[in-house]
Amino acid sequence: MSDQAAAGIYPPSSDFAANAHVNAELYATMYAASVADPAAFWAEHGKRIDWIRDYTKVKNSSFDYGNVSIKWFEDGTLNVSANCIDRHMVQRANQTAIIWEPDDPAKPARHITYAELLEQTSRMANVLKAHGVGKGDRVVLYLPMIPEAAYAMLACARIGAIHSVVFAGFSPDSLASRINDCQAKAVITADFAPRGGKKTALKANTDKALFDCSDKIKCLVVKHTGDQTSWVQDRDIDLLAEMAAAKPYCPYVEMGAEDPLFILYTSGSTGRPKGVVHTSGGYLVYASMTHQITFDYHDGDVFWCTADVGWVTGHSYIIYGPLANGATTLMFEGVPTYPDAGRFWAVCEKHKVSQFYTAPTAIRSLMGLGADWVERYDLSSLKLLGTVGEPINPEAWNWYNTHVGKGTRPIVDTFWQTETGGHMLTPLPGATDAKPGSATKPFFGVQPVVLDASTAAIQAETAAEGVLCIADSWPGQMRTLWGDHERFQEAYFSQYKGYYFTGDGCRRDADGDYWITGRVDDVINVSGHRMGTAEVESALVAHEKVAEAAVVGYPHEIKGQGIYAYVTLMNGIEPTDSLRKELEAWVRTEIGPIAKPDLIQWAPGLPKTRSGKIMRRILRKIAENDHGSLGDTSTLADPSVVDDLVANRMNRG
Ligand code: WTA
């Protein structure tokens, strides 16, 4: 181990830096330019994509609470699908655009060229048009990780429709609320979603969801597994059959840079999930630039992001970023542990993956199953590793570095959010000294500031701690919440005036490197998935035996954070183990399996102030098994409830 490694610092190797798109000097000059004159910087880098009509205005943004408005390249026009497909046809028609690896390793993988991508996307676009979907209409996608998910996203972009992908692990209720919130005209789903050898009945879930939606909504079904499903005449459409009969080319529509590309629902600290809106021009510039530079993507590389297209990571780094760059992107239908814990590495070997991008939770769970699974495979094709979704603990970073990276591949720990469209803080592999657990430095154009959480004072010293805000706009930023610009301003611009508030706490060390310390609001991060505690609470109180519920996060060895629920039952209801199971199952069906509480504690009462506000700080401490430092409980209406909660706490680890 080098002296630097012993000190926890991993500089880029000189070989890597020599061939990288960006080395340390270039990062310094480009970053300085990007914040000194953002409009000039992005005027230049906006040219990385193809415009139908060139932009003359680059940046037009205000973070002033009450007047928040964000526009990039506003008078330019383009088509995102044309940028991801058509513009590569001269050079790359026969290059693989998408490698599809099915859940079942015995089934053949598929290699879809850019020419095939154009044809399939066009066919699907023509089917959508035939069913009346056009510019500005919303289409909800509820699909397995299959090439049709990519075709569907790109087909919407091609005709100017706005897609909203709903993760296939969400329940019918969650699907229905998203369909209704964005008033979708059509839903694209599949019969079943195979994952880890099991099958989720997507069509049956969609049928249930559509009971609660307008009966005008069309349901386009990909017959993927071919298993039997119910069929509603005049509503359900056999998508693959209609694609086969459709014209193989569909012209693309000219879109404004600020026309919405997609809506993606994400959890917030209050209320129902928020429909984050991303638009066309700025998003694509930012997704493609971060993909190329953070991962140091070069022609001929095979890029694999293991996320699901139901999350923003899948949008930006399976579909839009890579395809805008003419890359080969791998799409994996399965899970890391099926048929065994070597699957990730088997896929890396089989498809000669160059860049591998996954979540810390996956690394921690594989770490627990032993490095033997990694050592069995030839991972010599790997050039770079990445992580996303939550802070990575140094132990997992070191395991990833040693066993997967063989101590020689750079690791990029990328901090970003559904709202940010692309990477915000990340090492650049040829430029930045990595430190296990730190997302290090801002990407071009990103101006992080650390504010004191309670006074909002700027922490100007290099070494500082507080909440992470961003001082000015960048092209990949969300523009609004679907149908609710007020809520958008409230959620992100009201607490720290003049700044975008990430909702995360952070520390900046003496070298100016950022360390994300986790959410400071009521959002928890379970296995790299965002979950609003309010959503789980409202699911729990919807159960007839539950009077009240309070949900907090607690540290979980594999998941990062687990879901800890305090439940007060209706008078006369007995707390039993079977009721606990019933409530777990209830939350699974109300929201989806990812929201199932890990621990449920029966709470005869919840700690409340005299004005009736639940003191979550106390509930968090008890859930963390840190009840020695509960602080002042004298303001509680009934301090004795705390003793009961401490005595019966569920986490004693
Ligand atoms: C957390 C995922 C630490 C953070 C792209 C953020 C991280 C939330 C990191 C967004 C990281 C994401 N280090 N924390 N590298 N990446 N987070 O919207 O709390 O699903 O606010 O976007 O994940 O989650 P989201």
Count of helical stretches:
22
Strand order of the biggest β-sheet: 5-4-17-16-18-19-20
Ligand set: 5'-O-[(S)-ethoxy(hydroxy)phosphoryl]adenosine
Q: Which stretches are poorly predicted, pLDDT < 50 over at least 5 residues?
A: none
Class computed from helices, strands and strand pairing: alpha/beta
What is the general shape?
globular
**CA distance, first residue to last residue:** 33 Å
CATH architecture descriptor name of one domain = 2-Layer Sandwich
CATH superfamily of one domain: ANL, C-terminal domain
Name the helicity range: 25-40%
CATH secondary-structure class of one domain: Alpha Beta
The averaged pLDDT comes out at 96
- The CATH topology of one domain is given as GMP Synthetase, Chain A, domain 3
| Rg, nearest Å | 24 Å
Strand content: 15-25%
Number of strands: 30
Major sheet description: 7 strands, mixed
Protein name: Acetyl-coenzyme A synthetase
Keywords: Acetylation, ATP-binding, Ligase, Magnesium, Metal-binding, Nucleotide-binding
Cofactor: Mg(2+)
Catalytic activity: acetate + ATP + CoA = acetyl-CoA + AMP + diphosphate
Reconstruct the topology from this structure.
Blueprint: H1 3-6, H2 14-19, H3 24-36, H4 38-45, E1 59-62, E2 69-72, E3 77-78, H5 80-84, H6 89-92, E4 96-101, E5 110-113, H7 114-130, E6 138-142, H8 147-159, E7 162-165, H9 172-181, E8 186-190, E9 193-195, E10 198-200, H10 202-211, E11 218-222, E12 236-238, H11 239-245, E13 255-256, E14 260-266, E15 274-279, H12 281-294, E16 302-305, H13 312-324, E17 328-332, H14 343-351, E18 355-358, H15 360-369, H16 372-375, E19 384-388, H17 394-404, E20 411-414, E21 448-451, E22 464-470, E23 480-481, H18 485-493, E24 500-508, E25 514-519, E26 523-526, E27 529-532, H19 533-541, E28 546-556, E29 560-569, H20 577-590, E30 599-602, H21 616-623, H22 640-647
Parallel strand pairs: 4-17, 6-7, 6-8, 8-11, 11-12, 16-17, 16-18, 18-19, 19-20, 29-30
Antiparallel strand pairs: 1-2, 3-13, 4-5, 9-10, 14-15, 15-23, 21-22, 22-24, 24-25, 26-27, 28-29
Helix pairs in contact: 3-4, 7-8, 7-11, 9-10, 12-13, 15-17
Bound molecules: 5'-O-[(S)-ethoxy(hydroxy)phosphoryl]adenosine.
